[in-house]
Amino acid sequence: MHSLSEYLIVFLSSSSSSLNLNIDLLSVKMVSQQQTKDSGSKKLGMVAPQDKSSKEMKSSKKMKFASSSAETEQTSQTTISDDSKTGRGMSTMPRVVKRKLQKLRPIVEYNKRGKGIGQAHSEMQSYIGVLARSRVPLVDKKWSQIPKDVKEQIWEAVDMAFVVGQGGKKSVLTSAAKKWKDFKSTLTRHYILPYTNDKEKLSHPPETYKFIEKAQWDAFVASRLSKDFESVHSQHAQIREKLEYNHRLSRKGYAGLEDQLEETMPGVEIDRSTLWKRARQDKHGNIPDPKVAEKAKLIDELQKQVSEGKVRVDGSKDVLTMALGPEHPGRLRGVGAGISPRQYFNLPKPQRVSFDDRLKESLRMEAKAKEEALRMEARTKQLVEAEREHFLSQLSQLIPNFDPGMLKQRISQSPKNPMSDKASCSGGEVKSLHYEDDNAKNGEHQQEEEKEEEKRDEEKEEEKEKKDEEKHDDKVIEVGDYSNMEAPSSLKSLCRYVETTLLPEDKLLQFTIDKEVFGGDRDTFLLPEDITQFAGMEEIGATVVAVYMRYLHDVLKQANMCSMVGFIDPATVSANSGTIAERSRLVAARLQKTDGEQIFMMPYNPGRHWILLIVRAKKETVYFLDPLPGHRVVDEEAKNIVNSAIKMYNTHIARAGRKNVIWKTLSGTPKQPSSVECGYYVMRFMRDIIMDPSLGFENKYAKGNQEASYPKKPLMKSGMNGQRQLLNT
Predict the structure, then answer these.
(1) Each residue of 603-634: pLDDT tens digit?
(2) Are 477 and 503 in contact (CB under 8 A)?
(3) CA angle centred on 183, ends 177 and 187, rounded to 5°
(4) Could you tell me if 116 and 108 are in contact, meaning their C-beta atoms sit under 8 angstroms apart?
(5) Which of 408, 480, 490, 547 has the highest CB neighbour number within 10 Å of its CB?
(6) Nearest to residue 604, comparing CAs of 559, 567, 659?
(7) 0.70 exceeded by the pTM?
(8) 3-state secondary structure of 613
(9) How confident is the model over 518-549, as pLDDT tens digits?
(10) In the 8-state DSSP scheme, what is residue 560?
(11) ∠ CA(487), CA(446), CA(676), 5° rounding?
(12) What residue spans carry the Basic and acidic residues bias annotation (predicted)?
């Protein structure tokens, strides 16, 4: 049976170029041979000799496996003898293939800076090299030009063999790109350039790499012997000659060296100057290069002075900087690739204050002062009303049959809903700024409108007081006539329900928003005036928006799109809902429940105005949609909340992330015609986006693709879909 199985494997290996299975089958063949050898040894009562790799696996630092049983049996399961091998040859990683067949996946470990360490990481890097050499075509192209399906095959092969962790795909493919580039460099330096005058040697691929197809090899050789490549090669050789302090690290890199030193030097802080010096020593601890030895001696002297307190290190001005000179921008010596100075030294992000920033801050302070003045005014009115109530109560005791209703206006006894604070763009200050050439004119015009509006409000209030005085019985409820209302029939029915049922019985609409909508169960309620104001197209609060998002979630469920779109509760993130840090943590917790590609819709109210933010955490991109016309600027507080949340998300998935989150303003959205429709427009934005299964909102609302304003009746009808659910709760 063994002879037959080996014959089949050899046969498949010979035709593997068409099946794209050459490496894995070759590895399986080696495993099969080893199993035969091991079984024979056991029959004779012998122990198979162990190679270097098996000794490493029996070291004190064993690999961790995703399978619990694998931790106790890993040595016997992964030990493979390579005694028959002569010379290094081409690495095929048979033990990795054997573990894949046994469904064992070692867990790759990382250090505090997110760099891979340990034996599992070393084996994974070797396996990535095997895949990069065998599965990526040998072509004179850049890595970015390699087909995506080839890269996906490499990632899937690595993911099947190792537990890489979240966010590991990018690092795996980055490593594959480097190893593929290094492989082409090795072929060029060792198998092409030394034989430029020997056409026979260049006519076929090297014996070590027989898997390279002849057509690919011939094309690659021709590209490497061209004049264009000769020029590029010469330039790179000159750059290479300028490097003064060459390290002697193996593939373990600085991360592996640091891990090794932490084992041999427990309790000692390993700084980058020590790493830099150790990386340039040979296996006996000597430094052959005189220039490097001179710098190493200087490092020793500086370290001694620091320990004695004669020299002080401060942030990026450490021992290595003193010895070698200042760092180049964005680069850091002695720690390996991919680590920036800001990451290593925990430097604060530099703040640049421009004139626009100062102007924004000035306007923000002015808005804050106005808000404080309004708050004081409201407090004064509250105190006056309290005194008035006290006076009326005293008066009723002195005068027989005194009716306070004749003197005071009727005050609603309904409880205050903390989520029912309304938002319109007519009063207060909108924190996102509106810059146009006629700002001064707009400001004067707005002040005039505000004065006229205040007069109208006063007149309405006086008229209401007169009507209340005429009504001696507060229990009499007049049902409004909604027949002429410009609204959908279902909305008219809901308003009648409010007038005939909720108001007479002093009821609220209480309901629960399920956990799957916002990530947690939440009980809330609507006041009758929330619904009547909604019917009148007046400003709306966070509860109304949240109820509509609940309806949209049902739409997503019916379309099987819940894995594509999620929602963030507007009541927990908008202004006055807590500190920026608290709100950032809430948003981060919501993002961490995504599968990676999901977008999250986040209606946000910076104060008296609704906007929509769409967060795509996987791509570190946020889209800003504002229904107000003109050049809009994202509210700084909202920006800080989402930026911090995405950083927390990156930490959660062990990803370094971009330096800055990408913010895109989609200015092609429909624009509200007046000052109270912002909440309705934000609800309609969300509806229109999810109705497109391709989620092509970025192109639809891009700058220059200006959408027309929504008609009033369809706008109300779209909002009504969410409110209709209230009757069934």
Answers:
(1) 998 888 889 999 998 889 999 999 888 777 88
(2) yes
(3) 150
(4) yes
(5) 547
(6) 567
(7) no
(8) strand
(9) 888 777 777 777 777 776 677 788 888 888 88
(10) T
(11) 20
(12) 431-478
| DSSP category for residue 520 | S
Residues with Cβ < 8 Å from 164, sequence gap 6 or more?
A: 108, 124, 158, 171, 172
For residue 24, pLDDT beyond 80: no
DSSP 464-481: HHHHHHH---TT--PPP-
Q: Do residues 63 and 107 make contact, with C-beta atoms less than 8 angstroms apart? A: yes
pLDDT tens-place string over residues 54-93? 334 434 456 666 654 444 344 334 333 444 444 455 667 7
| CA separation for the pair 498, 133 (Å, rounded) | 72
Pair of tokens at residue 602: 């986040």
- Torsion, Cα 562 565 571 577, to 10 degrees, reads 120
Tokens of 301: 């002297």
Residues 6+ apart with CB under 8 A from 219: 139, 140
The backbone torsions φ and ψ at residue 112, rounded to the nearest 5 degrees and listed phi first, read -65, -20
The residue among 32, 197, 216, 235 whose CA lies nearest residue 135 is 216
Confidence of residue 177 (pLDDT cuts 50, 70, 90): very high
The token pair at 1 is 């049976």
Q: Give the separation between CA 257 and CA 253, rounded to whole angstroms.
A: 6
Quote the tokens at residue 187: 């072929």
For the record, the structure tokens of 375 come out as: 């708050």
Q: Beta strands 599-604 and 611-616: pairing type?
A: antiparallel
pLDDT mean across residues, the chain: 71
- pLDDT of amino acid 651: 86
Q: What pLDDT sits at residue 183?
A: 92
The token pair at 630 is: 């003109």
Cross-strand bridge partners of residue 513: 522
Token readout for 402 is 């005194």
The whole-angstrom distance between residue 710's C-alpha and the CA centroid of its chain comes to 33
The CA-atom distances, in angstroms, between 643 and each of 342, 431, 523, 581, 659 are 17, 18, 29, 11, 11
Residue with tokens 């299964």: 693
Q: Which of 191-200, 210-219, 469-478 has the lowest mean pLDDT?
A: 469-478
Two tokens at 355? Answer: 């004139």
Q: How far apart are CA 348 and CA 332, in angstroms?
A: 16
Cα 330 to the center of its chain, rounded Å: 22
**Burial (CB count <10 Å: 0-12, 13-18, 19+), residue 552:** buried
**Residue carrying structure tokens 């020593």:** 281
Work out the angle at residue 182's Cα, subtended by the Cα atoms of residues 177 and 184, and round it to the nearest 5 degrees: 100
* CA dist., res. 623 & res. 72, Å (int): 50
Comparing 712 with 592, which gets the higher pLDDT?
592
Residue-wise pLDDT for 674-724, tens only, equals 777 888 889 899 999 998 888 889 888 887 666 666 665 555 554 445 444
- Which amino acid does the sequence have at 400? P
266 φ/ψ angles, rounded to the nearest 5 degrees: -65, 140
- 42 or 375, greater pLDDT: 375
* Radius of gyration for the alpha carbons in the chain, expressed in angstroms and rounded: 36
Three-class secondary structure assignment of 207-275 = HHHCCCCHHHHHHHHHHHCCHHHHHHHHHHHHHHHCCCCCCCCCCCHHHHHHHHHHHHCCCCCCCHHHH
